[in-house]
Amino acid sequence: MTATTAEPLVVARGLTKSYGATPALREISLDVAPGEILSITGPSGSGKSTLLHCLAGLATPDAGQVTVAGQRLDHLKADDRTTFRRRTIGLVLQFGQLVPELTAVENVALPLLLEGRSRAQAWQAATDWLQRLKVEECAALRPARMSGGQAQRVAIARALVTTPQLILADEPTGALDTVAGDLALEILVGVARVSGAALVIVTHDNRVAGVAEREVVVRDGRIESDGSLA
Amino acid sequence: MSLGTVLLGLLADGPAHGYDLKRLHDERFPAAKALPFGQVYSTLARLERDGLAETVEVAQGAGPERTVYAATATGLEALTVWLTEVEEPAVAAADEMVRKAITSLHRGADAVGYLQRQRAVHMGALRGATARRRAAADLGERIALDHTIAHLDADLRWLEETRERVAAHLQETDRTQGATR
Fold first, then answer.
1. Sheet containing A198-202: which strands, arranged edge to edge?
2. ipTM exceeding 0.95?
3. What is the mean pLDDT of chain B?
4. Which end of chain B, C or N, has fewer beta carbons within 10 A?
5. Which of B117, B127, B142 best probes binding to A when mutated, by most A CB atoms within 10 angstroms?
6. CATH number at residue A199
7. Structural domains of chain A, count
8. Which residue intervals define the domain ABC transporter in the entry (chain A) (predicted)?
């Protein structure tokens, strides 16, 4: 079920994956429409993070395929997949995963520099995003000097600086207290709405899932339910 | 919650008649149930009897006469005391959902199905409250919705944990019965 009738941005078909003898995904199929805000929830070990990693091309399914913005991920070589991901997908992970040696502005500018943008352009865009996320005071700080909430907002800025069509977030507020988490989440959802990006959030936290228009519940590697949150 | 003290909190802003108090209450506590007029008037009568509020004017207009009330000094003192007192946490076992889940187990009804449906309804309510909070311009409305969301979240966690517990219990019962057959 999708929120609109537009061509899906993400099409996943028959995703199956095991870790050793333990099945993580069992023939999962899922569409995500452009601009849709979707949560993937489920108990620990249900397969929800593996599903997100497959959608991002960070994990390769044993069977099945993922198409993002018309591109089959399994048809890309590893390097091309990395480039495609950088251009099309913004990734937000639980602990931000900022580069520890770089300052906030350098971290945010990095994806643009890798795309060949000039240093001046990349710095300007990174500074704008840090302001938008209200962490401009961290611009010259390395991650170790930031609070958890600041680091996560810098990580969100880095995920959004390339204006991706798809934002994939894995427990984006998991390391934050409620107030900092609510703020980071409001910003993430607000930016997705304004830019028209689709947002897929994996979470075990109902309050986080409550921002989505649609909830997919995963249990034992299968989709248990998929529906709009009326 | 004592409605009398809540009305005193409204009267602390200045004298008002019953109709105004009902309107002010519903505006200030949007997440609470709308206040029935009858309850406002009976509460005001009780406050007056106890010396916590007094009649300051009986307004005669085109419509029915309207009694204007004000908080007394004793009433304002009682309000101050109430504002410093902590409330007893609510007892979750009294909740209808708990009674229903327990009764389902006793009756052999589909408790897991009920818990799943109840979760979907709760998630819908949580989403609605989250959207209203995002749109809320007023701090009072925002913190009232924070409270609603926190309670829905607690109920949701209970619904999910109970579902796991009940499912494990039913599986264990099946296994035991299978072994004895």
1. A89-92, A166-170, A198-202, A37-41, A214-219, A222-228
2. no
3. 86
4. C
5. B127
6. 3.40.50.300
7. 1
8. 10-229
